[in-house]
Amino acid sequence: MKKQVIISGLMLFSLFFGAGNLIFPPMLGHTAGQNMWIGMLGFALTGILLPFITVIVVAFYDEGVESVGNRIHPWFGFIFAVVIYMSIGAFYGIPRAANVAYEIGTRHILPVHNQWTLIIFAAIFFAIVYWISLNPSKIVDNLGKLLTPLLLLMVALLSIAVIFNPESALSAPKDKYITHPFISGSLEGYFTMDLVAALAFSVVIVNGYKFKGLTDRMKILKYVCFSGLIAAILLGMIYFALAYVGASTAPGNFKDGTDILTYNSLRVFGSFGNLVFGMTVILACLTTCIGLVNACATFTKKHVPKFSYKIFALVFSIIGFLFTTLGLEMILKIAVPLLTLIYPESIALVLISFANMFSTFRFSWAYRLATVITLIIS
């Protein structure tokens, strides 16, 4: 089972490490400069610790994402879960990851970028996603044994090469990182929205242990905690390394972390750097999409048992393909307002559920009060 814990931890890392997680830390490091370490501690609080707590909460209550909303009312739990899976999954997370894989991953690889190349790329991308998602019992092994080690290798190759060949010393902090590095870093971690992703992904890792024959809830919880810890440590190491890449990059006109990583890839590896960075982005997006398709299909199959898991995996792959062809701007217009509404709500419910794990009281009043207050504020 130790081997399975490690494989599950690697798989969980790859689910969280999407394109946004790849490009946020370099820009943070570049802006924070000498205050990078403090800023990254804030980033780790909201971008690593909160998702880790979420994974534990979902595993503890053993009902998937609905377990959080069910603390208020079963109907609320169902509606809450539908909103989570549709927003972070089918109508945002899946097509966004695929679109970013195309826009950023192939930017310097494909000679031509137009609607037809996007359609062809998306068709190939989602064919791979569907193929790997077909067997849910092997998702953990396929990601943990195959794709995640390759993703880690690509990220490590880029990070280590820059760390041992920095362009400059850490510069002076800029903008908000001069006076409030910790808070600013916390906000950057908040914008990854990985807590909502954790609500969706947790069912994948819990089911992974169930497919291995485990039925004892507390044993599953223990193993999930260890796997989550492995994922958290890996995320922390990679995030800090990527932040250092940004912090050690000489001041320049960089719009975001993508520009910083592309620049350093070319600086260190030459023309080969385009391929290294492009493949890293595509792999990061691919693993995230596989996890989201699996999670969405599993949830839908639970509530609509008339149809098979494979049918729903195909449906969500097709939805992802169709929304990807709309372009990133259209995707953001549709989903961002909804995510902005439910994210504070999700944080409040997860934290109260976590506190409730250590108490015999149900905290019903706290759940309802938190729901009302966060909805009003949102």
General description of the model:
It is found in: Cell membrane. It holds the Pfam family Branch_AA_trans. Component of the transport system for branched-chain amino acids. GO terms for molecular function: L-isoleucine transmembrane transporter activity; L-leucine transmembrane transporter activity; L-valine transmembrane transporter activity. Helix content is 78%, strand content 0%. With 378 residues, it is an all-alpha fold. The longest helix has 32 residues, at 272-303. The radius of gyration is 20 Å and the shape is globular. 51% of the residues are buried. The model has no long low-confidence stretch (mean pLDDT 85).
Proportion of helical residues: over 70%
> What is the CATH topology?
Amino acid/polyamine transporter I
SSE string, helices as H and strands as E: HHHHHHHHHHHHHHHH
Annotated CATH homologous superfamily: Amino acid/polyamine transporter I
Query: Spans with pLDDT under 50 lasting ≥5 residues?
Result: none
Overall pLDDT, averaged?
Answer: 85
Domain count, please report it. Answer: 1
Major sheet details: none
Amino-to-carboxy terminus distance: 43 Å
The amount of beta strand, in percent, is under 5%
Outline type: globular
- Overall structural class, as computed from helix and strand content, comes to mainly alpha
